[in-house]
TrEMBL record:
Listed name of the protein: Pectate lyase superfamily protein domain-containing protein
Signal peptide: 1-22
UniProt domain Rhamnogalacturonase A/B/Epimerase-like pectate lyase: residue ranges: 26-64
Species per Swiss-Prot/TrEMBL record: Acrobeloides nanus
Record keyword Membrane present: no
Keywords: Signal
């Protein structure tokens, strides 16, 4: 492989990673409480949906919080940034089939 092509690809990769890292979606900004009791599923899914609409980003679960949630889809170009705790909901109604991603 030509060295100049390799360097150009590396520069594009660095720019792409930088773009993703600048788009941050904190689940608390979408209504998550993070007390380990309140169901934060809707807020978590909304944060991932917002990230997906802008072609990715970093979805943040803050340190010092315990986010109670049902399953959620991770989207392409998304970064799962867990600084706190994610706990699975015990409520059966929170669980439904999640559509399979095409990739």
């Amino acid at each position: 492989m030509n060295v100049s092509i390799l360097i150009k690809n590396l520069i594009l990769f660095v720019c792409f990673v930088d773009l993703i890292s600048t788009q941050e979606y904190n689940v608390r900004d979408f209504g998550a409480i993070g007390d380990g009791v309140t169901n934060d599923t809707k807020a978590v899914r909304d944060a991932w949906a917002a990230a997906a609409k802008t072609n990715g980003g970093r979805v943040i679960f803050d340190a010092g919080y315990n986010f109670l949630t049902a399953p959620f889809n991770l989207t392409t170009n998304g970064i799962l940034d867990v600084r706190g705790t994610i706990t699975a909901s015990r409520n059966r109604s929170d669980y439904y089939p999640i559509p399979k991603e095409p990739w």
